[in-house]
Amino acid sequence: MPDPTSGAERVAGTARKEFSVDAALDNKDFLTFLAGHPDAETFDMADEKAIENRFQTFEAKTQVSAGLKELYGGKIEKDLGFKLDAAGFEAIAKHVEKEAIENPEEVVALRSRLELFKTLPGQISTLESQLAQLGQREDLAEKLEVLREDKENLDTAKDFVGRGGTVKLATYQAIAFASKALPFLSEVLGTSNSISADKWRREIAKKSEKISEQWEVLGKVKDKHGDIGKEQAVELSADLQTQIWQVENALSSLTRLEDLKAAAEKLFGEIRENVLGGIEEIAGLTNAIQSQVDSQLKALMAKGTLKDFDKAKTRFEALQGVEDAGELGIKPLGAIDKAKFEKEVNAAIEKSVREQVMETVMNTKLGTNAFSRLEKSLAGFLDRTKVGSKEGNEAREFLTTALEEASETLPDDGDCQSKRIMISRIIIKLKLKP
Fold first, then answer.
1. Measured between alpha carbons, how far is 94 from 283 in angstroms, rounded to an integer?
2. 126 and 157 share a domain?
């Protein structure tokens, strides 16, 4: 199995004190672990480094075994709907023990992956919070554009602003006059075909365009900041530059955090696939799960009630969904004949519905509010949108047939004729349901 942590063998931050062979041998579980190796009789007990390596594997094995029991047990309970039994946990422990002897490096690496599997979700959540605090990229980009335009306009307007806080009158009037006079002059010169006039037209066009732009900039500055002096314009420009840097830094941080989050999510996905994929490699675990599923479904069917038949059908479909998703890497329904079970549970549900509809009709007494009482008694069936594998219109057709069969089964007497009339009305209403 490939290692998504690229061979990382130690969990960061786990400081180890100086190793002592004698202290390690005082651990009876470690002695049992050493004795379980094929080379137990020939192993060189003078090689302290080799003993330390095996002790590290022993520690990793203990942590991995506990980690996998917690992870697999929780995943199985969530996806399969039951707690893993003792046989399942024992299968996990035996598998890790075997791997620790045959593939010690893999067990040490798996400890790192399990640690990351636990810590990465928290890190991803922290990154998401930091991203949320920075805001949306589109909003920051829009804000940056507005700030840059405002600063550019202020820098342009500084030369046209007087000390007193108003636009220089002469310059302002000159611009106002030129913005109107130059296009008129260009039009007058347009009647001449001389080279000199053509040159003037081009020059006037350029000046006219520039003056129009300056006029527009001054208008924007005046609208946003009012009548300001040159010193104030310089201060505002400097303040805007600070804001621009802040937004640029926020955008840079946003990119960095997005990259970190994407990398963390990718690593978590790889580790998740790697770790959960290990379930199918545990020899006895699949058998333990399949045995529990088989017992659970049989127990529900044995109770013999419509409620339990429905539960069995729901559980079967949920387990089939787990198999189809394939994340666990095992087939919880592998111990049963799925086609046969589905046929049996569908037949049991349909038979139970028919019988209970008939029983309800037969036990209904005539009298005051007889129709309302019968309809209410049948509500649990009439409101069903699913009967076994039949859904929607198919389920409704089945219920209609069940009501018709109940009506036909009634004996020919006065009371039963009244019940047939009520059933006929119920069928009409059932067919009209949206």
1. 9
2. no
Contacts of 116 (CB under 8 A, 6+ apart): 5, 267, 268, 271
In a domain, 341, yes or no: no
pTM confidence score: 0.60
Pick the closest to residue 373 from 414, 426, 413 (CA basis).
426
- The identity of residue 76, as a single letter, is I
CA distance 119 to 222: 55
Per-residue model confidence as pLDDT tens digits over 68-113 = 999 888 888 888 888 888 888 998 999 999 999 999 999 999 999 9
User: Which residues, at least 6 apart from 69, have a Cβ–Cβ distance to it below 8 Å?
Assistant: 89, 92, 93
Q: Are both 322 and 413 inside the same structural domain?
A: no
Enter the DSSP assignment of 4: T
The count of residues in the chain is 434
Has residue 11 been placed in a domain? Answer: no
Return the DSSP state at 192.
-
- Other CB atoms within 10 Å distance of the CB of residue 153: 21
Containing structural domain, residue 44 = 21-134+258-281
